[in-house]
TrEMBL record:
Superkingdom to which the source organism belongs: Eukaryota
Gene3D superfamilies the record matches: P-loop containing nucleotide triphosphate hydrolases
Family: Belongs to the sulfotransferase 1 family.
GO molecular function: sulfotransferase activity
Name of this protein: Sulfotransferase
Enzyme class at the top of the EC tree: transferase
Length: 287
């Protein structure tokens, strides 16, 4: 099926209509934030599911109950997805934890007024591309990716769901409300998960004991989290997400793109990256 059949355009970017019908986008636009809210913001395939596991455990100070009993899409709902309307989020006690794939410019009026705490996760775009390519091949609500070359051109031009990685990252890096944003990298979480848990905890005002930090980090190691049916999306019906084609939680490593890119693809990607990011002063671990 084509983009026209599977996607809607919302604020200039494609969103899968199955997950984001008009009424859910309206709900998101009218949503009222609180200052104590915690918002996990990512471009798709940058570590959202991982953060949906880590953050509730930090908030609960190591109590495993929420992550072992509540599916991650209800535990940390995406505000723009249809599930959000059904969860009575207005009645949840603070701090509420949400996720979004929205660009900074797509955030609603209440966000800019209340300035909730934001955890913005970034990942090497080559790995984002590689992970996305597998994901598009197994999700029925996304347009078939075609060949890797074809999908790369779509990715580099932002003609996929949630638009351009470059625009997404630059928009959030240029946000004025930086005092309420923690920028964190997928790669640093892989290199030092315990240190990342401590860093996130400090940002959220949680002084975790060493044994609690250890417990959270151990549970959230990729291979352990992959076994949690509340987080690995195995509860999603096969008609929507066929994990026999490709697992949703696939490898959870940095640098997997090297196993998939040809020399020509690497050169093409690098050329576009250098052009799009030439004015960005931020230091990325993959540069």
């Amino acid at each position: 099926m084509t983009e026209a059949e599977l996607y809607s355009v919302h604020k200039g970017v494609y969103v899968p209509t199955h997950l984001h019908p008009p009424e859910s986008l309206k709900y998101c636009e009218e949503f009222t934030f609180r200052q104590e809210d915690i918002l996990i913001v990512t471009y798709p395939k940058s570590g959202t599911t991982w953060m949906q596991e880590i953050v509730p455990l930090i908030v609960s100070e190591g109590d495993m109950t929420p992550v072992l009993t509540v599916p991650n899409w209800d535990r940390v709902p995406w505000l723009e997805e249809h599930r959000a309307m059904l969860l009575s989020l207005e009645q949840r006690p603070s701090p509420r934890v949400f996720a979004t794939h929205f660009h900074h410019r797509m955030m609603n009026e209440s966000y800019f007024k209340m300035k909730p705490r934001v955890l913005y996760v970034m990942r090497n775009p080559k790995d984002v591309f590689t992970s996305s390519y597998h994901y598009y091949g197994m999700a029925s609500y996304l347009v078939n990716p075609g060949t890797q070359d074809e999908f790369m051109e779509k990715f580099l031009h932002g003609n996929i769901m949630f638009g351009s990685w470059f625009d997404h990252v630059k928009g959030w890096l240029n946000a004025e409300e930086k005092e309420s944003i923690l920028y964190i990298f997928y790669e640093e979480m892989i290199a030092d998960l315990k240190g990342s848990v401590e860093k996130i905890g400090q940002f959220l005002g949680k002084s975790l004991k060493a044994d609690v930090t250890e417990k959270i980090a151990d549970h959230c190691v990729f291979k352990n989290m992959k076994q949690n049916k509340m987080s690995n999306l195995s509860l999603v019906p096969e008609e929507f997400m066929n994990q026999k084609k490709s697992e949703f939680l696939r490898k959870g490593i940095a640098g997997d793109w090297k196993n998939h890119f040809s020399e020509a693809q690497e050169k093409r990607f690098d050329a576009v990256y250098e052009d799009k990011m030439k004015d960005v002063k931020f230091k990325f671990p993959w540069d």
